[in-house]
Amino acid sequence: MLQRLREQWEKFKTAYEQRHPRPFGEEHLSDDVYLVIRASSDLDIAEFELFVKAYEKWFGTEAREERIEKYYLGYMFCGQVPHWVREYCRQVAASAQRHQLDPVDFGIKPIITRRVKMGLAVITVAFGLIAGLIAVTEYTVDRRFQHLRDLNRVNITHRP
After folding, report:
1. How many CB atoms lie within 10 A of CB 96?
2. Range of the domain at 142
């Protein structure tokens, strides 16, 4: 049953893609720009990060943001895609087409890892704020009712 549904889906998808080669509103994009957008979408990363990962894979060294910036600006404003980004995107597209796309193979950390780190940061900040509020409250209440504690310490005897 699942196999038959998958085959029907693939037929429908292929027929649709032949009639509509690109999503609505993206007809004016060059093939290279469309390839970059599609690869960044498939890998679930920003386009700039895609440039960084492509640079690291092509040149085998860590990419500095200053170095990538000039290539990325050329892409953003003029639609110029460097050959190493194009090749990286083609590899992503080929893997996606074979249904074997694993972002880890392309140097991308799993999305769960990225989201867990963000969640831990938010929780840490929240606990810090709560601890700070408790400390301020304790200090304020402590000072406000100090005179009552002083009265309790003094032995007051009641004589009729």
Report:
1. 15
2. 113-153
CA distance 91 to 52: 15
Distance CA 56, CA 49 (A): 11
For residue 105, give the nearest of 91, 85, 116, 115 by alpha carbon.
91
pLDDT tens, N- to C-terminus, the chain (160 residues): 678 777 887 887 777 777 666 555 555 677 788 889 888 888 888 888 889 989 988 888 888 888 888 888 888 888 889 999 999 899 888 888 888 877 777 777 766 666 677 778 888 989 999 988 888 877 776 666 676 667 666 666 655 5
Same domain, 91 and 139: no
Clarify whether residues 142 and 72 are in a common domain.
no
Task: Report CA-CA distances (Å) from 146 to 119, 132, 156.
Answer: 40, 21, 17
Shared domain for 27 and 88, answered yes or no, is yes
Question: Do the beta carbons of residue 85 and residue 114 sit within 8 Å?
Answer: no
Q: Do the domain assignments include residue 40?
A: yes
